[in-house]
Amino acid sequence: MRVMFATAAAMLLAGSAQAATIVNGSFEVGISLGGFTSLSAGDSTSIAGWTVGGGGVDYIGSYWNASNGSRSVDLSGGAPGSVSQTFATIAGRTYTVSFDLSANPDNGPALKDFSASADNTTFLTQVGQAGYPLSWSPKGFTFTADDGAATLMFTSGAANSAWGPALDNVSVSLNAVPEPATWAMLIAGFGLVGVAARRRRRVVAA
Predict the structure, then answer these.
(1) Sign of the torsion formed by the C-alpha atoms of 42, 43, 48 and 50
(2) Phi/psi at 37 (nearest 5 deg)?
(3) Which of 42, 51, 76, 152 has the fewest Cβ atoms within 10 Å of its own Cβ atom?
(4) Cα–Cα distance, 155 to 117 (Å, whole number)
């Protein structure tokens, strides 16, 4: 009985985690690409789901290896830039943002400043890359939603540089929090396990 209940509890908890709707997290859907194409601030059509900001970005195709699929983004175009996307959230719930990070090794600072933000949370780091092929590192952070929508933004901090951090494989997940009905089922299950255990002890004592 305990094994069956533990399995059911695990299924309930797993089922309460849901993927948030991030469009085109690996940048695979967009304009035709060769090696790469530079995109200007305000462009919201070249990379499906994403809006380009700041000094623009380079949309990378075959120029270097992607983390997931065949495309990625250099967050510095002619100057440090950004990409952003707004998606639906549930106020007060916590979300985990995951992504892969590398850097353009051609030039610029050896360590390139990078930031990611959503609602009132900002994640800061530096990233470097010695050469080709690119090595990608998984990164992530959590945030609590303020209201029914959040804007996720990734920004290059490589000042005065056209060679920035590289981004790929973005996803957002809603962290699991059992609802009241789920808690009630779990508590009831633990109670049944306790009753069964007491009955077994009585039989042994008799």
Answers:
(1) negative
(2) -135, 135
(3) 42
(4) 9
**Assigned token pair, 29:** 């859907």
- Annotate 18-28 with b (16+ C-beta within 10 A) or e (fewer): eebebeebbbe
Write the DSSP symbol of residue 187: H
Write out pLDDT tens, residues 35-47: 999 999 999 999 9
For tokens 């050896």, the residue is: 110
Return the C-alpha torsion angle 197, 199, 204, 206, nearest 10. 160
DSSP per residue over 47-68, as a string? BTT-EEEET-EEEESTTS--SS
Give the separation between CA 50 and CA 72, rounded to whole angstroms: 12
* pLDDT, mean over the chain: 85
* Phi/psi-derived region of residue 25, left when phi > 0, alpha when psi is between -120 and 50, beta in every other case: alpha
Would you tell me the crossing angle of helices 2-15 and 180-205 to the nearest 10 degrees? 170
Under 8 Å between Cβ of 61 and 34: yes
Q: Which regions in the chain score pLDDT beneath 50?
A: 1-17, 179, 181-206
Residue 105 CA to residue 107 CA, distance in Å, equals 6
